[in-house]
Design a protein that fits this description.
This protein is globular. It has 12 helices and 14 strands. The protein has 401 residues and is an alpha/beta fold.
Length: 401
């Protein structure tokens, strides 16, 4: 009957999270998420690449999985085969690569085929909020391992694996972001990468390696991926195009042997990742990757230096942080006893957005005094102004002297 509205609250899945507030636009000083700099998006290159794509074979668009099948188009996977070999030391093949709609889907798929309620996984103490949230939604248990300037602590990892084995628990995987860790920005040493592989072999636990930020090292040589050191099948490797081009591209990938790949494909029920994005990115990167990534690294380094300077000027000795070797985040420690969650809304009211530390921790209370700041999106002027405004809010709220 007209006017008799339906109450959906009685129909929703009981396990749904609370709904978010309605989006009202981006804040003026935006230090959240993994946004990239709009001025670094290579629009002319994209236009050229799109022209090449639209002059190509229309069957790529008119048919499901025409070129390359369900794992993604051949040119993009071939680009990854070549890039992973030259930049990350990984020798792989087209058959071992799956293109996904962002690295978030890559995490979702790996958890889909490995995790059941009550399973145990090992994670870094501070880690990617999306991965931690996915594990929590699946009601799996997390064992958190400390992270220092050389990455995950291997002594703690060895002890955790031994303790779990003594209780008859075999973790499903060790999740690590070894290169430009999110949120800490650390890079795991080669010694620890080899040690992790040894522990993986000893306890029969695979390594889930997330390298979404590995392309963004600012300068110089850097450590090869853990996957490159693996001569068996112990490492599942994922990466992303979102951080090198922009999150709107929604393209990521998984590298895994066929035993795992075949199961991933059985759960990837989206009829294939969007082919237009794949084709444009493949054309652009096959022609411009090296020049693009060098410009991106240089721009990010400038902004990182500006953010570090702005924090020192506006916060002084009241905050602690280490300037990372790359990436797009600073992990900042506020004075002991300060809860960053209580500062979030007052800052937003003044147009400043940051990520409270608890969102990025397996133990939220242990990260209460941390904040994560993304420096990729705001201009250098906005960084200076935003950090000054943030310090004013924090002082007003009693979080700083």
């Amino acid at each position: 009957m007209p006017g008799n509205t339906l109450d959906y609250n009685s129909l929703f899945n009981r396990n749904l999270p609370a709904p978010p507030a309605q989006w009202t636009g981006h804040p003026k000083y935006n230090f959240i998420g993994g946004h990239s700099d709009p001025d670094m998006v290579p629009m002319e290159g994209f236009i050229e690449a799109a022209g090449n794509v639209f002059r190509g074979d229309p069957r790529n668009i008119s048919m499901y999985n025409f070129d390359g099948g369900p794992q993604g188009i051949t040119p993009l996977r071939q680009f990854l085969v070549d890039k992973l070999a030259s930049h990350r030391g990984i020798n792989t093949s087209l058959d071992e690569i799956l293109i996904t709609s962002g690295s978030g889907l890559a995490i979702e798929l790996i958890n889909e085929i490995l995790l059941e309620e009550g399973d145990t996984v090992i994670v870094e103490e501070f880690s990617f909020s999306g991965a931690l949230g996915n594990i929590r939604r699946r009601k799996a248990n997390m064992v958190a391992i400390g992270v220092d300037h050389d990455g995950m602590n291997m002594d703690q990892l060895a002890q955790a694996l031994e303790d779990l084995q003594s209780r008859g628990v075999r973790p499903k995987y060790i999740y690590t972001i070894p290169t430009l860790q999110n949120p800490t920005g650390t890079v795991m040493s080669m010694e620890r990468r080899f040690r992790m592989l040894d522990l993986s072999a000893e306890y029969g636990v695979p390594i889930f390696e997330d390298e979404c930020y590995a392309d963004l090292i600012f300068e110089g040589e850097y450590e090869n991926a853990i996957r490159s050191l693996d001569d068996s099948n112990r490492v599942l490797h994922i990466g992303s195009f979102s951080k090198t081009l922009g999150p709107g591209t929604r393209l990521g990938y998984i590298v895994a042997q066929w035993e795992v790949m075949s199961r991933l494909l059985s759960r990837k029920n989206d009829a294939g990742t969007g082919v237009l994005d794949q084709m444009i990115v493949a054309d652009y990167f096959n022609n411009h990757y090296e020049e693009h990534i060098l410009k991106m690294r240089a721009a990010l380094k400038r902004k990182c230096d500006v953010l570090a300077s702005a924090l020192r000027e506006s916060f002084g000795p009241n905050v602690e942080f280490e300037v990372p070797r790359g990436g797009m985040y600073l992990w900042v420690k506020l004075p002991e006893g300060v809860d960053s969650r209580a500062l979030n809304m007052p800052a937003l009211r003044e147009g400043v957005a940051f990520n409270p530390g608890p969102d990025w921790s397996a133990d939220p209370d242990a990260a209460a005094s941390y904040i994560r700041l993304c420096f990729a999106l705001p201009s250098e002027t906005e960084i200076w102004e935003g950090v000054e405004k943030m310090a004013e809010v924090f002082r007003k709220e009693g979080a700083l002297p």
